[in-house]
Design a protein that fits this description.
221 residues, mainly alpha, Tetracycline Repressor, domain 2
Length: 221
């Protein structure tokens, strides 16, 4: 798909229907015979980038299965970074719906109810996308700062104590506060995913032990 190649080369910001028509050596009007709008092009781009969804077969350990799904989706973002820049839409295409089906099948082994399951699916999908964007932006900033002025953290470090930022200064001195490597990004992703799965696994216990309101009582807030 030529549109995907253009997005891979310059991101979705560099892609337009006019540009795509130029590359395909057709007029924009000719392209509009197949695409009604840029939004429709984005839907097709997302569908291609997601590729075939993983199997929806249920696996006994729902946390292991859900973790596998999360890593598979993250791999699609890594393969096509511009996927994170497309406008979010409700899944309506075969591959997008297949990814949702695969996740729902994995969450069936949990104690979550129907409403909680779709909230969990939204949470997991949003976490993967947001984490990818964050890590991508930090990586781009690190590459830019290195090319322009070297190690900015090293330049800032001596000023922290004078500012009263002792805790941050300790992180700097301990070597913790630095431009993340791929290994650090992977560990950060696992850390967040672990906490989400831990929270989901405790949902039933929290629900079972929640206080029962008396009839007619109104929730605060």
């Amino acid at each position: 798909m030529r549109a995907v190649e253009l997005a891979d080369e310059g991101g979705v910001s560099a892609l337009s229907l006019v540009r795509l028509a130029e590359v395909l050596n057709v007029t924009p009007n000719a392209l509009y015979r197949y695409l009604d709008s840029r939004e429709e092009l984005d839907i097709l781009l997302r569908e291609y980038a997601l590729a075939d969804p993983p199997s929806a077969a249920r696996i006994d350990d729902w946390q292991v299965a859900t973790r596998d799904w999360a890593h598979r989706l993250r791999a699609r973002y890594l393969a096509h970074p511009w996927l994170a820049d497309l406008t979010l839409t409700v899944p309506i295409t075969p591959n997008a719906l297949g990814w949702l089906e695969a996740l729902l099948s994995r969450l069936e082994g949990s104690s979550l109810g129907a409403a909680e399951t779709i909230r969990a699916a939204t949470l997991l999908d949003g976490y993967i996308r947001a984490q990818f964007i964050s890590q991508r932006d930090v990586r781009a900033w690190g590459e830019s700062s290195s090319s322009e002025g070297g190690d900015l953290t090293g330049q800032v470090s001596p000023l922290l104590d004078a500012r009263g930022y002792g805790r941050v200064a300790a992180l700097f001195r301990g070597g913790v506060y630095r431009e993340p490597t791929k290994e650090v990004h992977d560990r950060d992703f696992e850390f967040g995913l672990d906490r989400i799965l831990l929270g989901l696994s405790s949902a039933e216990g929290l629900r079972d032990h929640s206080p029962v309101r008396s009839r007619g009582a109104r929730p605060r807030g």
